[in-house]
Amino acid sequence: MKKIKLMISLTIVLAMTFMFVGCSSESAVNLGDDFLEKAHEAVKEAYGEDYIPSMAIQEDFLADIYGVPMDSVKEYIAEGPMMSTHVDTFIGLKVEADSVNKVADALRAYHTDLVENSMQYPMNLAKVQSAEILVIEDHVFFLMLGGFNDNVEQTEEEALEFAKEQVQIAVEAIEGLVK
After folding, report:
1. Which residues contact 107 (CB under 8 A, 6 or more apart)?
2. Contacts of 118 (CB under 8 A, 6+ apart)
3. Dihedrals φ, ψ of 142, to 5°?
4. What are the φ and ψ backbone dihedral angles of 168, each rounded to 5 degrees?
5. The model's pTM
6. What gap in Å lies between CA 31 and CA 38, rounded to an integer?
7. What is the pLDDT along the chain (179 residues), one digit of tens a residue?
8. Fewest CB within 10 angstroms: 14, 39, 52, 67, which?
């Protein structure tokens, strides 16, 4: 009987030890003070000539159009296209740690509205639908980027697949800085 109690006690202690080890929080990734600039440069380099955004997006535009609560933003790099026929957009935001979800949700709401309520040139529909909101620690990115697929005979599904692959170039460029 004593052996059984001892075995049960040891099992419980071991289980609790593994539970606490498993529940310990992962240490936050130290992104460094220049992560935003590095992410922007990595994305531009990854796309090369296919990186279209070249006009800075101003703070009031981020607040009024994109719905970004700018009082939560410490630093940002935001660029959009010079020509209205393009939709390519890069927004990188370093935000207050307790505001990450609020900022990401604002960009998700903007994206949803863009998909559901805006008029787009046919060539931009798939790119708009494929835009990504990426969160890494206290950085939030809105990525609507990618090369132009000149296959005029593509189906909507093929266009969407191409656009998703294209936006992943930006996602992988940024995530590659963390690994």
Report:
1. 66, 67, 68, 91, 133, 140, 142
2. 128
3. -110, 115
4. -65, -25
5. 0.83
6. 10
7. 444 433 344 334 333 333 333 333 344 667 888 999 999 999 999 999 999 999 999 999 999 999 999 999 999 999 999 998 999 999 999 999 999 999 999 999 999 999 999 999 989 999 999 999 999 999 999 999 999 888 888 999 999 999 999 999 999 999 999 98
8. 14
Q: CB 149: neighbour CB atoms within 10 A?
A: 17
Burial pattern 65-80, b for ≥16 Cβ within 10 A else e, equals ebebeeebbeebbbbb
